[in-house]
Amino acid sequence: MRQTNRGTYNTDENAAKAFYRSGFGKAVIAIAVIILLCIIALLTVPSDSQMLAETHDNNFQCIIDNDSIQGDDLDDTAANIFRIVTSADTTLIDKETLAAYHKFNNLEVYRHALFATTYVRNNLFPEGKRVAFGLFGVVIPTIHYQDLLLRTGRLHRDYGDGTIRSTINYGSDYMGENPNLGPYREKQ
C-alpha cells in the first residue's frame, strides 16, 4: 500500500523546533527575555546627578507651561511625555518664582534595584510626592503643577482671627438671609 500524501507528514522536525513549539519552551523563552530585560534595567539605572538634573529641567518646564493656564490630568500626562525629549529655557521663569522653587521645594532621589525615583518634599507634601522615575537610562516625569509649592500666603488676617476659609457655596447662588460678606469685599 502506498501513501498518496507523503509530503504532509514531515517527521524531520529537529529538537530546537520541537522545544520552541512546546508550552514549556515558550515559558522558558519568556522567562529568559524577562531576565535579560532585568539585567539591562539594572545596568542602566540613571545616576543620582542625572535624576536631579532631569527632574529640575522637567519641573522648570512644568512651571513655564502652567504660567497662565493650568491643565487637567490629561494635559499634564501629555506634557510629561514631551518633557522627556525637550529641555527648559530657564530665562522664561521670573527670578521670584525660581527663588521660591528652590526655597520651598526639596528634591530627593531614591535608588531601587531596577529603577530610581525622585520625590519632592515641601509643606504641601512633607512625606514627599513622586515627580519622576528613571528606568533604562531615561528619566520619565510624573510632575503636576499642584505638586510644587511656589507661593506662600497668610493663613490668618490678624492675630486672634481664625483660619481664612472659603465659605462661598459655588453650587447655588443662594447665600442665606443675611450673608456675612465683609471679609470677602474689598476695603474702601
Please name the defining characteristics of this protein.
about 190 residues, alpha+beta, four-stranded antiparallel sheet, about 10% strand
Helix percentage: 25-40%
The best one-word shape is: elongated
Helix/strand-derived category reads: alpha+beta
Biggest sheet statistics: 4 strands, antiparallel
Low-confidence stretches: none
Q: What is the number of beta strands?
A: 4
Bin the strand percentage.
5-15%
Description:
Strands 1-2-3-4 form a four-stranded antiparallel sheet. The chain is of the alpha+beta class and 188 residues long. The mean pLDDT is 79. It is elongated, with a radius of gyration of 29 Å. A hairpin with a 7-residue loop joins strand 2 and strand 3 (129-135). It has helices at 15-21, 23-43, 48-65, 73-83, 95-104; strands spanning 106-111, 116-121, 129-135, 138-141.
Question: What is the secondary structure topology, with strand pairs?
Answer:
Blueprint: H1 15-21, H2 23-43, H3 48-65, H4 73-83, H5 95-104, E1 106-111, E2 116-121, E3 129-135, E4 138-141
Antiparallel strand pairs: 1-2, 2-3, 3-4
Brief summary:
This protein is of the alpha+beta class. 36% of the residues lie in helices and 12% in strands.
